[in-house]
């Protein structure tokens, strides 16, 4: 018979739980999940669905029947996270967060420390009450503009923006989806451990305030020395992306076969590697021309391609190369027709996993692709066909109204504020009142946070803060599917005795250490695991193990639950561990090592602060 966590609690610390076939099968599923999360061979939501299928198919060993397999979709944590994402989307539609950022920017000036203070002050407290993922998405363009106006490299501010949002997320239960999920797991384990319960709204606020203050002081006074200036202050985008080597002007000569042809047909003649990003006709400039646009004699085409294709343009019948320098001048010529900026591929974007097709992108988004950073590295030559991923950054040129529209979509994050942003500013007081009401109802325990959040969603729609069709766009569906997939995996790990066995291994290897050191080791283990899989998955897998291990050494399970929760919600060692780190990867021009350079000391400091805080407030 498999050994349950309850059975393990009743055993002495020297009694080894049986390593059954059921346990080994679940360990195999966990191992597969880790590999898929780490390699990203499948999108994260597809991986989550696959886990559900595998667990149900292997029911004789996993104990997960179809009802348990899909229980994650109806789980309180999943629905609460969904509702909180919608509420955050309502706040973002009012422009309230951006306005706060702009007001702080006015205070910052050209002092780096004041800019850092403004970034942290605008991000941390807000992230305690709004999901920190959309907060960072909203503030990336604001903070980038703060840097440019203050003649500071955006690289100095964008990682601090991400880290401040993560620390701010630990102020309340609703600051991050990880907190909500950890609360649900803790409540489920409460039937086995009397010390465990569902988190209240401000359960760990006192520790969260300390973490935010100490982390902020580090970012303002120490961290910026460790961050290189990857992107120069007020960087010239064309120089940063080496565009001069990949653009050229070609003129449509008299008698050319391109005369009367559409842009689509002209692209087929010029070659599939050539993308027409502008058409200049009688001094009128068409940026990101539609494929149905017809060409005339004397038109000048600004094209983006690779070096070899530019050289072969000289041999194409009916066009005459004008030159590369002229093309760069055409791109940067002052005009209301087009603005050059960066677009970051968002977490739940339809572009994730797709091959970049500049023609299709231009047709759908009305923006011409000029350059690409893939996984932080500049793609110089051939950008066509590159598989896009979360955090990839596209350099584009688009009309101002297009940027306004893109800023309201969830596929991309506009890295610089659009010139004419449109927000429902008149709805800001209503949105704030609804959010305060949700927090108050949950904090006073009048109703569960789930009910309060769903009521808030209805109120947002009824009052016009959100349109009904915007509800679905506000949800990051890959996070929802991830929660639905890992929740039954955590149940299988508990039911088959896998959590008990892992806890026994911890007790055997670290049981001779002081309890506070074991607590610190769990914090470190969670932080490292979060860097290779999602923060939500690490919480689901490690919370049962931490609680069982705590009981095995006669410690306080709630202290270990909090250590795992804090460690999973503050991932500073790389861009993969937390989605907000990916959002700043491209706009900051960062390398993978930059995160560890500033994040490792911060992680070490906060590991000590958090563990000591837990020991002081809750005991070990």
Automatic annotation (TrEMBL):
<dbReference type="GO" id="GO:0006813">
    <property type="term" value="P:potassium ion transport"/>
</dbReference>
<feature type="transmembrane region" description="Helical">
    <location>
        <begin position="558"/>
        <end position="578"/>
    </location>
</feature>
<dbReference type="GO" id="GO:0005886">
    <property type="term" value="C:plasma membrane"/>
</dbReference>
<feature type="domain" description="RCK C-terminal">
    <location>
        <begin position="328"/>
        <end position="412"/>
    </location>
</feature>
<dbReference type="GO" id="GO:0008324">
    <property type="term" value="F:monoatomic cation transmembrane transporter activity"/>
</dbReference>
<keyword id="KW-0812">Transmembrane</keyword>
<feature type="transmembrane region" description="Helical">
    <location>
        <begin position="46"/>
        <end position="64"/>
    </location>
</feature>
<dbReference type="InterPro" id="IPR036721">
    <property type="entry name" value="RCK_C_sf"/>
</dbReference>
<dbReference type="InterPro" id="IPR006037">
    <property type="entry name" value="RCK_C"/>
</dbReference>
<keyword id="KW-1133">Transmembrane helix</keyword>
<dbReference type="InterPro" id="IPR004680">
    <property type="entry name" value="Cit_transptr-like_dom"/>
</dbReference>
<feature type="transmembrane region" description="Helical">
    <location>
        <begin position="474"/>
        <end position="493"/>
    </location>
</feature>
<keyword id="KW-0813">Transport</keyword>
<dbReference type="Pfam" id="PF03600">
    <property type="entry name" value="CitMHS"/>
</dbReference>
<feature type="transmembrane region" description="Helical">
    <location>
        <begin position="76"/>
        <end position="96"/>
    </location>
</feature>
<dbReference type="Pfam" id="PF02080">
    <property type="entry name" value="TrkA_C"/>
</dbReference>
<dbReference type="InterPro" id="IPR051679">
    <property type="entry name" value="DASS-Related_Transporters"/>
</dbReference>
<feature type="transmembrane region" description="Helical">
    <location>
        <begin position="430"/>
        <end position="462"/>
    </location>
</feature>
<feature type="transmembrane region" description="Helical">
    <location>
        <begin position="500"/>
        <end position="526"/>
    </location>
</feature>
<feature type="transmembrane region" description="Helical">
    <location>
        <begin position="207"/>
        <end position="227"/>
    </location>
</feature>
<feature type="domain" description="RCK C-terminal">
    <location>
        <begin position="235"/>
        <end position="319"/>
    </location>
</feature>
<keyword id="KW-0677">Repeat</keyword>
<feature type="transmembrane region" description="Helical">
    <location>
        <begin position="532"/>
        <end position="551"/>
    </location>
</feature>
<feature type="transmembrane region" description="Helical">
    <location>
        <begin position="598"/>
        <end position="618"/>
    </location>
</feature>
<keyword id="KW-0472">Membrane</keyword>
<feature type="transmembrane region" description="Helical">
    <location>
        <begin position="116"/>
        <end position="140"/>
    </location>
</feature>
<feature type="transmembrane region" description="Helical">
    <location>
        <begin position="23"/>
        <end position="39"/>
    </location>
</feature>
<protein>
    <submittedName>
        <fullName>Citrate transporter</fullName>
    </submittedName>
</protein>
């Amino acid at each position: 018979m498999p050994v349950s966590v309850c059975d393990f609690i009743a055993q002495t610390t020297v009694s080894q739980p049986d390593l059954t076939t059921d346990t080994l099968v679940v360990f195999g599923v966990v191992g597969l999940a880790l590999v898929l999360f780490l390699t990203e061979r499948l999108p994260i939501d597809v991986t989550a669905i696959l886990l559900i299928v595998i667990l149900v198919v292997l029911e004789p060993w996993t104990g997960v029947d179809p009802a348990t397999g899909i229980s994650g979709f109806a789980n309180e944590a999943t629905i609460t996270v969904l509702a909180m994402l919608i509420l955050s989307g309502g706040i973002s539609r009012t422009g309230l967060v951006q306005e706060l950022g702009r007001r702080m920017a006015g205070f910052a000036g050209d002092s780096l420390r004041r800019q850092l203070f403004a970034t942290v002050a605008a991000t941390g407290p807000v992230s305690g009450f709004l999901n920190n993922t959309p907060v960072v998405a909203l503030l990336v363009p604001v903070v980038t503009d703060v840097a440019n106006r203050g003649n500071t490299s955006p690289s100095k501010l964008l990682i601090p923006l991400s880290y401040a949002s993560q620390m701010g997320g630990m102020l309340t239960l609703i600051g991050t989806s990880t907190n909500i999920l950890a609360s649900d797991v803790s409540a489920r384990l409460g039937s086995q451990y009397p010390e465990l319960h569902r988190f209240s709204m401000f359960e760990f606020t006192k520790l969260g305030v300390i973490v935010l203050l100490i982390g902020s002081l580090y970012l303002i006074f120490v961290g910026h020395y460790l961050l290189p200036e990857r992107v120069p202050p007020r960087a010239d985008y064309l120089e940063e992306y080496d565009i001069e080597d990949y653009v050229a002007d070609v003129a449509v000569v008299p008698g050319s076969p391109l005369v009367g042809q559409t842009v689509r047909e002209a692209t087929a003649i010029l070659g599939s590697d050539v993308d027409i990003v502008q058409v200049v006709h009688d001094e009128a400039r068409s940026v990101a021309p539609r494929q149905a646009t017809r060409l005339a004699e004397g038109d000048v085409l600004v094209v983006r391609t690779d070096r070899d294709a530019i050289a072969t343009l000289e041999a194409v019948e009916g066009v005459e190369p004008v030159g590369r320098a002229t093309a760069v001048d055409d791109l940067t010529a002052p005009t209301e027709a087009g603005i050059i900026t960066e677009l970051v591929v968002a977490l739940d974007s339809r572009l994730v996993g797709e091959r970049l097709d500049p023609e299709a992108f231009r047709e759908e988004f009305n923006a011409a692709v000029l350059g690409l950073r893939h996984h932080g590295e500049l793609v110089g030559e051939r950008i066509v066909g590159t598989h896009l991923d979360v955090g990839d950054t596209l350099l584009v040129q688009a009309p101002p109204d297009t940027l306004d529209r893109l800023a309201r979509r969830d596929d991309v994050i506009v890295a610089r504020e659009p010139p004419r942003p449109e927000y429902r500013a008149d709805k800001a007081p209503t949105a704030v009142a609804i959010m305060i009401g949700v927090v108050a109802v949950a904090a006073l325990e009048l109703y569960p946070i789930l009910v309060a959040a769903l009521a808030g969603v209805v109120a947002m729609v009824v009052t016009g803060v959100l349109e009904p069709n915007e509800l679905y766009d506000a949800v990051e569906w890959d996070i929802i599917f991830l929660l639905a997939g890992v929740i039954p995996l955590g149940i299988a790990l508990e039911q088959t005795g896998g959590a008990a066995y892992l806890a026994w291994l911890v007790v055997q290897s670290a049981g001779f250490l002081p309890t506070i050191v074991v607590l610190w080791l769990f914090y470190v283990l969670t932080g490292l695991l979060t860097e290779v899989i999602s923060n939500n998955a690490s919480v689901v897998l490690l919370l049962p193990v931490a609680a069982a291990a705590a009981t095995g050494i006669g410690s306080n399970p709630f202290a270990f639950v909090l250590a795992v929760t804090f460690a999973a919600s503050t991932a500073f060692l790389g861009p993969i561990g937390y989605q907000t780190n990916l959002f700043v990867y491209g706009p900051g021009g960062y390398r993978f090592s930059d995160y560890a350079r500033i994040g490792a000391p911060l992680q070490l400091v906060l590991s000590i602060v958090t563990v000591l805080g837990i020991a002081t407030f809750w005991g070990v």
